[in-house]
Each structure stands twice: as structure tokens, then as C-alpha cells.
User: What shape does this take?
Amino acid sequence: MAYLTLRKLKKTYGATVAVEDFDLSVEAGEFVALLGPSGCGKTTTLRMIAGFVPPTSGEIWIRGADVTALPAHRRNVGLVFQNYALFPHMTVRANIEFGLNAHHVDSAQADERVRSVLALVGLSSHEDRFPRELSGGQQQRVALARVLALKPDLLLFDEPLSNLDAKLRVQMRQEIRRLQREVGVTALFVTHDQEEAMTMADRIVVLDRGRIAQVGSPAEIYDRPQTRFVADFIGISNFFEGAPFPAAGRSLFRCTSGLEIGILPENAPGAAGVLAVRPEKIEFVSADAPHSLPGIIRQAMQLGSTMEYLIELGSGDRVIVHEQKRPRVTIRQTGEQVRITWHPADSVFLQS
Amino acid sequence: MPSWFSKPHRSFAPWALLGPNLLLLLLCMAGPLLLLARISFMGYEAGHGIIPAWQLANYKKFFFDPFYRGILWGTLLLGAEVTALCLVLGFPLAYALSRARGLKRAVLFFCILMPLLTSTVVRTFGWMILLGNNGFINHTLLRFHLIAAPLRLMYNVTGVLIALGEVLLPFMVLSIDTALLNINPSLYEAARNLGARDTRIFFRITLPLSLPGIVSGCVLVFTGTLSAFVTPTLIAGARFKVMSTIIYQQAMALLDWPFGAAIAFTMLIAILILFVASLRLTERRRSA
Amino acid sequence: MRILLRLLNAAILLYLLAPIFVVMATAFGASAYPLFPPEGLTLKWFHQFWSTPELRDALRISATLSATSTAFATIIGTFSALALVRYRLPGKTAISAVLLSPILFPAVVLALALLIALQRVGLTQTFTGLVAAHTLLITPFVVRLVMASLAEFDPSLEEAAQNLGAGWWRTFFRITLPLIRPGILAGAVFAFIMSFDELVVTLLLAGPELQTLPIRIFNYVQYSSDPTISAISTCLIAAWLAIGIPVYTRFLSVRHS
Assistant: This one.
């Protein structure tokens, strides 16, 4: 049995469904991100695991024990809050000791644990400070140290980086991942920031309106999205709506706009659906390349290391293309006539 | 707020927490007020005491006897005068207070709060020292030959107006200050950006948006005047009576509780109507 | 225009503070009646206050009455505030309006109602009756100030405590209570002052054995003119400033941080 198992978890508020059909297994030591737009149920799920929200139905199992009915203070699940929730009237040390006292850890051992977690997060010299005397990043570390001191069975993060400025946020991603590996604790990380989920997680659970849309590694989620929602929410995708139809021994994709695309993934079934292509998978080719699509550049935008082109195809479809700036590659101008294509394996067919 | 406090099996907890307070209100306020209402319909006869009955005699006496009707109108007029005085004096002060920042605001706030922390008896006593025939005001005016004979400031309605205006002014200032602080400062900048001058900004932005505070301040001051007892008693004595002093007199000296209760109940209803009306007024403006 | 406004406000402030200033000044004057501006400088009126037995008794009665009422009001009011801010309750606005209503009713009306009611149960002219009346009158202040401090209290702190393994009691006594203590203290101090200064209700219910300090002052002012009253008033003003301002500023600073 997995380390953490959620079975058919469901939460409704009156007629509103917050979370439904939530099944998930997490292995020991895994770092899993719950990713989705606001209101998708990710925080509700986290709060159900922490014990703050009683599920309407379903079960929560941690290390082979059913904790669904256990009150929050008996769960030994550490939660790092979005605003850290450090006790403002207590020093860093007292904040960490609070949980140890609640767990009746004897004072010698408690002392040792405080010292070791403070060393772990690099705040040994700050133990007598009050939370308001610490920077945002330091407060974040104290919040983490406070739960790590209790050697929790499971670590939960509720968008812990959203209150930090951009540079620090990137730094703390690595820091949190390092600490989690060092301690070897299993972690669940709620975020609405896809980049955060991509860079930190072993696995990502994408949520859409209370249901799991897809579970997979960051690469799987990005390269092999299973629904249009995932392809749209993670990164940028070009979508072509239509249906494949057999023609002259090989299949074509005929869009509703009338555009015909000859570049199809091998697994494309016969039914109607959506063809999704990432902008960076599209390349510019010369006029004689087979199956290429002609168009005009309508807009050229600087994205730093990349150029973004908006291309209008003859059918009226608009396609976004990303091209790395490299030596000897000239930047294209608005109004330029171009032809584009992509490798069949780089497009994904999604049932609509 | 899905906190552990609001778990379903704890839903009896808020009522348990509210219990003592609700019991207190029931026993010491709701019950007594009901008794007061009941007793206001009873009769009274000197020598016999209270006569249990259901009758409207007390109310008839209060509303139709010229003496008591005079007191009713006198009290209402005083309320209007004190309210006008407090509004005129309170608005500029509240405006300055709402504009002040840091230490200046702290000092101003302290000056307005200090009277509130000082008992009405003490402040009225201060006014007695100032307003008397040989008091500071008359003394000063006489010395500089601004008047020939002392002004009569005590034992009449003028003195009550001056003293009550001071006693109730902080309520007006704090109400208006709250309303002024609630105005989004970018509204002023927006108005200025649209080309409005200071006077236009004041009459088109500041004044209309502080109206809820003005209304609640006026209600507080008006009801404060209606229920004022200490200041009229000490400043005016027997010369100028208001509803409160009559109630006190009926209750303590004449022991005609039913009549006192009728006046008290009338006052209560009047004040409740005022409060509800003002709430309606401010709420409609807010939703508009 | 701006200078005019400043002058006007200075005059209004003078009007607002004049009586308090006058009372304090006359407490130090040597003349036998309160005279402003005072002539001479003396502390004899303060001495007079301490050495008059009936005034000392009144002070003792007032202090006991206010302390007792404040204790009840603080507990009752804090409970109510917790219930109103922390729980989902049907008709919350209506309940809080009812809880705050004793401030809204005219004191004379409540006084007469209480007089009639307490008469029925034989509690007029008793300490118990006065404590009940005062508790009723001052509890709203506690409710209001504790509600204000609870409203700014971050509920995730309680969740954090529970997440760290603390049960109801530990969470309440180690987290909730310490953090709303400034609000409770401010409420208690304000309630105490309001109770100590209460005159109208006390006047109707007290009787000859329970003459509080405000009643004594009221009677003195009504029938005689004596700078001793100025001295007592000065002591009260100083006391309220001494305990009121620190609590008030601390409460404000906690609310703003």
C-alpha cells in the first residue's frame, strides 16, 4: 500500500462541489504538487488531509492508517501556511517548542530538536528573534523548521512561496526541495504557479474544477497533456479543432476552419477532437518542404531569449511560434510570408 | 471560515458562550423594560400607591397637559439646537482630525477622547464655574467692559445648550471622522485630475460621502440630548426641565412610577424610531 | 482660508477642553469656592478629599462596585465576542445589535426600568442590584473592543497550533488568549471607567448606604460649591489618563502592526 492514499475523496458545500472523485497514491519520499487555477479545490484537498475540513465522503490513509476521522491535532501532518502563521507573540525558539510541548517531548530532547532544525534551515543565530523581526524568507524557514521539528509523517505546503518576491521565490524552491530530500519526508505542495510545480515536483496533479485532470511527471504533463484543459493551463498551446479523415492512403486533419493539416501523431483516432502543438515545436521551413503551411507574420514580439511570432494562416487560423534567438538566425518582420511545419510526434491529439 | 471552531459537533458552543450575556440582557434589560411598559398603563393615587389597571391616562396626561407638552417640545427643541451646534463645531474639527497624520493626529485624538473619559458630572461642574454670574466668562467680559451687566448663563436653557454641546461634541467628531477616513483618497486625486477646485471637491465629494457619519453623529447627539440628565439638572436646576429630569422627579420624589414609566417609554420609542430611521437612511445611501 | 480654519479649530478645541482645564485649575486654588483663574496655590483640597470619611467611603464603594462589575463584564463580554467573531451563527448582526443595545438606551429609562424590576425582587439599594445594573451597562464596551481585536486575529494561527498537535485548551490559552489580551484589557479598562463614572442608574438604585463617588460629587455640586470637588475630579481625570492612555495606545499599536 502506498504511503499516502486518498480514496474517492469528496467535499461539497451545499450544492457546490469543491472536490470530487479524488483518488491519489503517493509513495514515501515523493514530492507531489497539486496544481490548478484558483477555485479548483487544491487547497480544500490539502485542508482535508490536514484535518481542518471534514470530507463529505471518501477516505484518507497515511502509513496504512485511516485518519479520515482523526482531529487535526492528532494527525502528525505538518502544514506550512501561505502566510506562515508564525505566532507573533513568541520567539523563533518558542514557535518551534510549541509543537514539541504539545507532543510532550521531554525538554532535553526538545532542546536538541530545536537546535538541529534551526541548523538545518540555517537560522541558528536567530532563535531569540520575534517573527516580525525576520525577513519573509526567514519566516518561511521558521515555518518549515517548526513542522520539521515534529518529524511529521507528511509535509503539506499551502502556496508557501506566493508571498515572496520573484527572486527569493526561485531560491526558496531549491531550498525547500533540498530540505525535503535531506529529511526524506513525503510532501504535498499546493500551487497555482506551473513553473513552481514543474521545477520542484516529482509528480504533478493537475486539478480542474474539483476533479483530477491529469497526474504525471512534469515532462509527461507538458509533453503529453491528456485534456485540452491541461494543454491550455500548462504552458502555451496552439489548438486546431477538427477531425482526421483518410485521404490518399494517409490521414489528414481537417479543421473546422477548412485548414488541412498533414502532420498527425500516429495514435490519432478517427473521432473529432483537437490537435495541440506547443509554439516552440513549430519551425520555419522553405517553400518546398512537404506538408508545410503558408502564412503571414502578423506580430513579432521580444520575449528575451526567444522571439514570439503570431502567424495568420491562409485559413484564418492564428498560430503562435516561439523561436530561440541564435547566431545566424535573423529575426523575422511583421508582414513576412512564411511556411511552418512540425514533427508529427510533437503534436498531441486530444479528444474534445 | 472553516476553522476547527466551527466544526458541526461544536455548534452548541457559540450559544453556550453567548448564554451568560443573553441571560444578563433578559433579566436586567428585557424583563425590566417589559415591566416598565406594563406599569406605564397602570394608575397611581397618592396615599394608595400604584393601582393595577390597563388605561391610557398617563400617556394622555403627558401628551395633552400643557405643562408636560411644553416639556416635550422644550426637550425636542433643545435636542435640535444641541445637534445643530455640535454639527457646526464638529465638522471642522473632524475634518482636521481626518486630515492629520502621525503625532498630530494622536494629539488631536487624545484631546477629543479625554472629555469622553471624563465623567459628565465633572465636565458640567467645570461649566458651572465658567458660566455663573461671577464666573470666568462674565468676569472677563465685565472687566473688558464688553458688557454692562452679567449675562444670564446659568439656570436657563442657554447654559444647558453651551454645556451639553460640549459634552456631546466628541460623539459628533468621532462619527464624522470615521466617515471621512472611509473615503478613498484617490477620489480626491481623481476629482482634481478631472479639474475640480477645492470648494467643488468639498461640496461634491467630501460632504456627500461623509453624510453617513453626519447622520449617525446627529442621531447620537440628538438622542444624547433627549436622555441627558446630569447637565440639565445641574445647570438649569428647577428653572428648565427636560424629559429626563421629569422622569427622575416622578420616580424618586413623587413616586408616581406609572407616569414616569409612560414618559420613559415614550422617550425609548422615540429614540428607537430615530435609530432605525437613520440606519435605513445610511444603508440606502451605501447601497446606491 | 487655512489659517482661518486653524483658528476656528483651536477655538473649538478650547471649548471642548475648557471645563476639564478649569476643574483641574480650581483644585489648586486657595479661595474657599472654586474660582477661575485660581488665586494662590494649595494642596489642601486634596487633603480635604482624603480626610473626609464619607468621601473615602464613597471611593471605596465605587472601587469595589466597579471592580466587581468589570470582572463580570470582562468574562461575559469576551465570551460573547468569541461567539460572534469565531462562529457561524444565524442572525449574527441582529445578535450583536442586541448585545450592544444597553449603550443605546437612555440611562434614565433603564434606571427606572431597573428600579421597578429590582423592587419586585427586593434588590434595590443592594450591592448585588448595583453590580447587575453596572454589568449590564458596561458589558457592551468589552464586547466591542474584544470583537475588534478578534477581527484582526488571523484564524490560521489557531489552525497552525492545532496542526502542531495542540488541542482546544492549549490553543486557546497559548495562542488565542495571549493575542487578544490587549483587546480584553482595553475593554476591561474602558468598562471600569464607565462603571466608576456611572451616575444616573446608580442614583436611582443605590440608597443611602451605597453612595458612590459620582453620587457624592453630584450632591456636592448641586447643593454647595467647594474646591474639594475639583480635587476629586482632578484625581479621577489623572487616574483615567494614567490607566486609559497606555492601554489604549497599546491596543492601537497592536491593531496596527
Observations:
- The interface with chain C takes residues 50-52, 71-74, 76-79, 81-83, 85-89, 98-99, 102-103, 132, 146-147, 150 of chain A (CB under 8 Å).
- Residues 236-351 of chain A form a domain with the OB fold (Dihydrolipoamide Acetyltransferase, E2P) fold (CATH 2.40.50.140).
- The first strand of chain A starts at residue 4 and ends at 13.
- Chain A has two domains: 4-229, 236-351.
